[in-house]
Amino acid sequence: MSAVSSGVNRRPSADDLLVLLAVGRSGRFVSAAEELGINHTTISRRIAALEHSLGGRVLTRAAGGWELTELGREALAAAELVESAVKSLAADASGSRVLEGVVRISATDGFSAYLAAPAAAEVQRQHPKITVEIVATTRRASNQRSGLDLEVVVGEPQVHRATAIRLADYCLGLYGSRDYLAERGTPTTINELAAHPLVYFIDSMLQVDDLDLASSFVPAMRESVTSTNVFVHLEATRAAAGIGLLPCFMADRHPDLTRILPGKVSVQLAYWLVARSETLRRPEVAAFVDALRAKVHRERNALLGNQHNIE
After folding, report:
1. pLDDT, tens digit, for every residue of 39-89?
2. DSSP assignment, residue 12?
């Protein structure tokens, strides 16, 4: 007999299971309360009632939120069946299943704009009741994905109780504007780069190790304009502030930028998708992830810097 069904005092409520589902996905009572439209106290009461009916703890306190216990994970699987059964009753005029809900994703600035946003638009066209919220940020993967369904980070993440999926490789290259190179000359060797200023991230504020190491091939280059936002890097480079170390799939969109030393400077990095396994099973999240992977696949050459324009 399973842990869920053994030693119970009464049958668990479907409503209580759906509350656990919301808490399990967000890791926070507050986020679950916002999603369900109830207050924090009701969340606590529902979880307590569920634990009483199951005869054990379904959640355990973790840094910054809550994690599912073994019993909680088994109960969450049952909750997903309840949710699926309820959602299966919703269909459009043709009888097709209607997907709805909010998908929250954090990703780097460039990925958010050029990959996540188009994927979100495609999902919204197919499933108008799905809303995608995109938080643009460059940071390490969090072990407490409170309020987020998906994270896209640079470099392989070290995460706890989560699934990490390698989405795509991409490259950084050195670029200069036509005006800058006309005035200062185009470097033809690595050593000549030392005479030019670098446009890149603020070193002291950079949280991603792979991005921090990316500029190590040119330690002699002094900093010019630095920022936490890659679009600032791009526009500063276009404005002739110096030589920018830029994602090729962004820089190659602009004919006023010229790639420098492409055969010698090509920093290979990777985008990784991080999520709780239970979150990836949500139909609306799965639909967005499928659209995101399809978009990444279509842009593979651009990501690797093998073409000059993204389609």
Report:
1. 989 999 999 999 999 999 999 887 778 888 889 988 988 888 887 777 766
2. P
Q: How far apart, in whole angstroms, are the C-alpha atoms of residue 233 and residue 242?
A: 10
Last-in-domain residue among 61, 87, 113 = 87
Structural domain harbouring 157: 100-168+272-297
Residue type at 20?
Answer: L
Q: How far apart are CA 121 and CA 72, in angstroms?
A: 34
| Model pLDDT, residue 309 | 36
Helix 40-54 / helix 29-36 crossing angle, nearest 10 deg: 100
- Structure confidence by residue, pLDDT tens digits, 270-279: 999 999 887 8
Cα→Cα distances 42→15, 17, 148, Å: 11, 13, 22
CA distance 172 to 267: 5
Report which secondary-structure segment, H or E, holds 206: none
Q: What is the pTM of this model?
A: 0.73
In this structure, is residue 2 part of a structural domain? no
- ∠ CA 164-167-173, rounded to 5°: 125
Here the tokens at position 161 are 């109780």
- Are 57 and 178 within one domain? no
Q: Are 271 and 111 in contact (CB under 8 A)?
A: yes
